[in-house]
Amino acid sequence: IIEFEATYDKMNNKPIAVNIVKLSSTETVGENRVEGTIAVVSRLSSTTHQNGRNYDTSINIPDGRITYVQKGETFYIPYGLNDLQDSNLVLKVGDKISFNVAQDRRNNQFFAR
């Protein structure tokens, strides 16, 4: 299973996949993007496995936190530096972001992707 974003090739205006990441078989990523706010800036890299950016949430829960509201209820969800699409991006508390919600099926832990 992979995750990717679609964009267009500027040379021939055909659709292409970018930011391709192989997902762990224990990870489920929601299809809809969610709007949220950085509540706590991550300082730790997620544990990287051989198959990509995935981390084992039973061992290492990232130190960053994102807050978002869904159907009137506020949620806090963890993220790590390896979950960012642009590793050079510097986030600050209060920054508005969009992300996908992922779930580790082994322990039902939710996290931002």
UniProtKB/TrEMBL annotation:
It is found in: Cytoplasm. Its main location: cytoplasm. It comes from the Eukaryota. InterPro entries: CSDE1. GO terms for molecular function: RNA binding. Keywords: Cytoplasm, Repeat, RNA-binding. One of its GO terms (cellular component) is cytoplasm. PANTHER family: COLD SHOCK DOMAIN-CONTAINING PROTEIN E1 (PTHR12913:SF1), UNR PROTEIN N-RAS UPSTREAM GENE PROTEIN (PTHR12913). This is Cold shock domain-containing protein.
